[in-house]
Amino acid sequence: QVQLVESGGGSVQAGGSLRLSCAASGRTFGGYSMAWFRQAPGKEREFVAVIRSSGGTAYYAESVKGRFTISRDNAKNTVYLQMDSLKSEDTAVYYCAAGPFSTYYYSRARYTYWGQGTQVTVSS
Hints:
seven-stranded mixed beta sheet; single chain
């Protein structure tokens, strides 16, 4: 069992930065891939980024590539999402998720555990 708690959301102007954190409980954190998804009002929850258990490989959605960076600290059971050059279209609730790695890493169905989400609002 893994419990996930996100933090670090807030309001920022376009062009600014935020860093989200996701703290995990449970001894199996290091064995899971960790991902971030987001959901804007009236839209489906969409994949943002994923990092494999070792932290050596990460994948990103095209819409955030070059602006967002995912990282993890297995000693602290925490995954991060550094968001730079934020745009108004990045406004959403951001969710942390954990699960075994899959080549379908962009699919919500591949993740077993989810956090409650943290709101990110970017004003233009």
